[in-house]
């Protein structure tokens, strides 16, 4: 059986999530690990039995490497992906698709020209709870979805930023809590709404980390979608623990609540648990969820079968557009109905 050759670029925090899954997929083989700090790549290469390199461009001359995982800082996602796609390499990039909407637009154009596929990692769409919620929305069983709210209260200490100076900077991270942590929740809200954004009002602040970062650690927003659904959002990195994400979706004939990855239906005054995942995310990295493996495997299925992956450049840009809509609304101190997605 011919195996699909893979490489991972970036040996930071999220690297192990990708490497572990690749080691478990029989049809794939991790052949190269890349990091600008070569000792990191060599360390991981020894663990996973592959080669190491300091420059990702060596991949361009490797016909045995067909898929590249980008686990690099945000500002490197788009330029690396564009070069790899031009060389015919399939690319699976961690979120965000880019660190600015302008860079995302450039990458979307590059992906449209390439014969290879671009996938964006929003793994929480694969959570059992997310899938169950989306199924109920699509079924119409509870009537029309009217409004939603998402609440994220997490913690980031100064050491999180000082250990990786690219974080906390507009130039390299592209923002703060919104673009790095809670972009997953914003992505779920827009996926559930299944509609373009019509209006955004909101504000960003730096409540606890102002001595360490130039970006926000806290934000709130009111998001109106074109189909009439309204979403309220609050997120912060100023809490002292990583609490489970809370979601509420109100329909004409009932309410869905997500707590600790479980979904409850409130109907006729009765609350019933309708989804308890077989695996619930726990521990320090619980905010990642448990679905990286499902997404990565699905991406490889699409590549092998030459079918377009559904979380592509266009779909992967939607949450970033909302993030920058909140930034624009905060800067203007007023609700906005238009903002430049290419800025």
UniProtKB/TrEMBL annotation:
Q: Which Pfam families match?
A: GFO_IDH_MocA, GFO_IDH_MocA_C3
**SUPFAM superfamilies per record:** Glyceraldehyde-3-phosphate dehydrogenase-like, C-terminal domain, NAD(P)-binding Rossmann-fold domains
Q: What is the lineage of its organism?
A: Bacteria, Bacillati, Bacillota, Bacilli, Bacillales
Which Gene3D superfamilies does this entry report, sorted A to Z? Dihydrodipicolinate Reductase, domain 2 (3.30.360.10), NAD(P)-binding Rossmann-like Domain (3.40.50.720)
Name of protein? Oxidoreductase
Gfo/Idh/MocA-like oxidoreductase N-terminal domain ranges (all copies): 6-120
Q: Which InterPro entries match?
A: Gfo/Idh/MocA-like_OxRdtase_N, Gfo/Idh/MocA_Oxidoreductase, GFO_IDH_MocA-like_dom, NAD(P)-bd_dom_sf
Cite the GFO/IDH/MocA-like oxidoreductase domain residue spans from the record: 131-256
Q: Would you say which domain of life the source belongs to? A: Bacteria
